[in-house]
Specification:
25% of the residues lie in helices and 34% in strands. It is α+β, with helices and mostly antiparallel strands. The strands form 2 sheets. Strands 1, 4, 5, 6, 7 and 9 form a 6-stranded mixed beta sheet that branches. The protein has a 3-stranded antiparallel beta sheet with strand order 3-2-8.
């Protein structure tokens, strides 16, 4: 996994101490209702595309960039389904610790015939999957974010397309 340079610089100063980072998750659904997933090279689990917002980068731009880098698919963010803070500290194998605030975007591909491909070292496979035929194992974070998307869509269908927040 490529760690952003700004994090490497911070780690030189603070070591493995916890960092508070802003991340995005991209829920990408095509015209056939299939969901874009990648098999993570670090865990072997299937997951939605996610990544870290670079300093000064707009979160929507991060979303577009991460999906393109990881899958080769061009997307357009359509909505924000949720803004949530993690309630746990992530501890990486190298000892680094992070806590994230995640912005979950609902996206559509800008080309309905988009054929995904592995674009970087973060995934070993990528593909489109019908919701009823998702591959296993799914990352725990993806399972919870798919539930959030389902709740968001149900509310939006009833006229409330506001993002979900934990209070």
């Amino acid at each position: 996994m490529t760690t952003p340079n700004f994090i490497l610089s911070l780690r030189e100063k603070i070591g493995h101490d916890p960092l508070w980072l802003t991340g995005i998750t991209a829920y990408v659904e095509d015209a056939d209702g299939r969901i874009l997933l990648g098999r993570r090279s670090d865990t072997g689990e299937w997951a939605l595309v996610y990544g870290i917002v670079e300093p000064g980068e707009e979160p929507g731009r991060t979303c577009v960039r991460e999906v393109l880098e990881e899958t080769g698919v061009h997307v357009a963010p359509q909505a924000i389904a949720s803004v949530k803070s993690s309630n746990y500290l992530v501890k990486y194998a190298n000892g680094d610790q992070c806590r994230y605030i995640d912005i979950l975007f609902i996206c559509t591909p800008t080309d309905d015939d988009a054929a995904p491909f592995v674009g970087d070292d973060e995934s070993t496979e990528v593909g489109w999957f019908p919701p009823e035929e998702l591959p296993h194992p799914l990352a725990t974070s993806t399972v919870s974010r798919l539930a959030i998307v389902s709740e968001y869509k149900a509310r939006a269908a009833k006229g409330n397309a506001a993002a979900l927040f934990s209070l």
